[in-house]
Amino acid sequence: MAEIGLRSAANDDDGIVVLIQDGVLLDPDLDAPTLAVERDLEMRGLTAPERIDTVTYDELMTLMVDHEVTSFV
Questions:
Q1: Residues 2-14, buried b or exposed e (16+ Cβ, 10 A)?
Q2: DSSP state, 43?
Q3: Mean confidence (pLDDT) of the chain
Q4: In angstroms, rounded to a whole number, what is the distance separating the alpha carbons of residues 38 and 53?
Q5: 24: closest CA among 53, 50, 46?
């Protein structure tokens, strides 16, 4: 499933990839802005790579309201 979502994001010039839950285990190499949810990283004892920014779930909800969400994978 993740492969399909990452492939879709790679073809979307305006796309933002958000890694949630076990998705934070991935380290996609994309030319798209990539975010990971802080709580999900913490729950798995991980830190985000330098090129991946972190967001809280509250910040993620704000992003989803402020921007058109076209795909959940």
A1: eeebbeebeeeee
A2: H
A3: 87
A4: 9
A5: 46
Whether residue 40 contacts residue 21, with contact meaning beta carbons closer than 8 Å, is answered with yes
Strand partners, 34: 17
- What residue ranges in the chain does DSSP mark as E strands? 17-19, 34-37, 53-55
Q: Which two tokens stand for residue 51?
A: 């090129």
Q: Which residue has the higher pLDDT, 13 or 4?
A: 13
What is the CB neighbour count within 10 angstroms for residue 21?
Answer: 11
Alpha-carbon distances, residue 45 vs 10, 12, 20, 42 (angstroms) = 28, 31, 14, 5
